[in-house]
Specification:
With 162 residues, the protein is mainly α. The protein has 2 domains: 53 residues; 100 residues, UraD-like. The protein is 66% helix and 0% strand. The chain is globular and about 50 Å long. 30% of the residues are buried.
Length: 162
């Protein structure tokens, strides 16, 4: 798999951050590793990036049940993930709650709340949102990166099954 094919295939695994696939491809050349190896290499790439680059990656993610969803501006993967969690079916009260929590979270931490929602429902997501608002910045930064890695793994697994 050449560089452009690799980037085309894997550039969206990490939300709006094709640099992850680009860096991994530069390590691999034309090799195409198995999904487990690829997931590990991509996660290592993110984990070894500068804190500023990691923060840009975190900030590249959309709010859950946010304005981008309503405007139809989410990536195809994010749209599917939020839909599977029922975030496209929020009641008016739930939607308002998500908006309030999104704003409170971003005000406190300076980046959006990140959760791998593929296997969650609205109630679980709201509960996690409220609990994590109690954390400090460093804890949330680390949790955000862990959740991003989970999202990436879900996306890689979906590609493999696809």
């Amino acid at each position: 798999m050449n560089k452009s094919e690799f980037i085309a295939a894997f550039g969206g695994i990490y939300e709006h951050s094709p640099w992850v696939a680009e860096r991994v491809q530069s390590l691999l050349g034309d090799q195409r590793p198995d999904t487990n190896t690829l997931a590990k290499l991509m996660a290592d790439c993110v984990d070894n990036a500068s804190e500023e680059t990691q923060l840009e990656l975190i900030r590249a993610h959309p709010d859950l049940a946010g304005k981008a969803q309503i405007a139809g501006e989410l990536t195809a993967d994010s749209t599917e993930e939020q839909s599977r969690a029922g975030l496209d079916q929020c009641s008016a009260e739930e939607f308002e709650r998500f908006q309030m929590l999104n704003e409170s979270y971003k005000k406190k931490f300076g980046f959006p709340f990140i959760k791998a929602v593929r296997k969650s429902n609205r109630a679980e997501i709201l509960q996690a949102f409220e609990a994590r608002l109690e954390n400090d910045y460093d804890t949330e930064f680390e949790i955000a990166l862990m959740e991003i890695h989970k999202i990436a793994r879900f996306r890689l697994d979906a590609m493999e099954q696809g």
